[in-house]
């Protein structure tokens, strides 16, 4: 997230409108019980049960420079499936203070609730007021982080905000996915904002949420 946000901010000041980091990890029953117990002190906890699982949600009540932290714990009723812990850290804008507070939150949470096997997904949305020409921005990414474009998908659905999806790879970031026998760890969605201007939604190693 830090590399991504600082790269976009260096391209154009105040270009970051909002950002989000998701940390996921599957755990066995013994471990999930310990994590759930620790999470009870992190914030307000709510739970609900359906026929397949027990789901808990925890919202961190601490306010840190407008950064929001939430946790989700999903415990399947069937013992053949592992439980999953999900943490989402999100905020608006990006500056040095935000970066410092984000690093502190991530370090504390990953050290307490997660291990090195967890997966981290980062997502950033540029401001609709930012003036970003897509091809020029992609060239900038190539020059700064070694971005290599692997694939471009044009969205032809008339009512969709999405205009195109661009997939690529940078050797600077460790996490990656294999797509058509190519390594991918950057996805860029070009979308149309409500003011008809272009916004970019950038994710690594891939976008996992609706945009």
Folded structure, characterized:
The protein has about 210 residues and is of the alpha+beta class. It folds into two domains: about 90 residues, 2-Layer Sandwich (TBP-like), CATH 3.30.2030.10; about 80 residues, no CATH class. Helix content is about 25%, strand content about 40%. The strands form two sheets. Strands 2-3-4-5-1-6-12-11-8-7 form a ten-stranded antiparallel beta sheet. Strand 11 and strand 12 form a beta hairpin. It is globular and about 50 Å long. The two termini are about 15 Å apart. The mean pLDDT is about 90. InterPro entries: DUF1779 (IPR014794), YwmB-like_sf (IPR036209). Pfam families: DUF1779. It comes from Tigheibacillus jepli. This is YwmB family TATA-box binding protein.
What portion of residues is helical? 10-25%
Radius of gyration: 18 Å
Give the CATH level 1 class of the largest domain: Alpha Beta
Query: How many H/I helical runs?
Result: 4
Q: Major sheet, described briefly?
A: 10 strands, antiparallel
- The SS-based structural class is alpha+beta
- What name does the CATH topology of the largest domain carry? TBP-like
Tally of structural domains: 2
Strand content: 35-45%
Question: What are the low-pLDDT stretches, counting only 5+ consecutive residues below 50?
Answer: none
* CATH second-level architecture of the largest domain: 2-Layer Sandwich
Q: If you average the pLDDT, what whole number results?
A: 90
Number of strands: 12
Alpha carbon gap, first and last residue: 17 Å
The CATH superfamily of the largest domain bears the name: YwmB-like
What global shape is seen?
globular
Strand order of the largest sheet: 2-3-4-5-1-6-12-11-8-7
Order of helices and strands: HEHEEEEHEHEEEEEE
Organism: Tigheibacillus jepli
Pfam families: DUF1779 (PF08680)
Protein name: YwmB family TATA-box binding protein
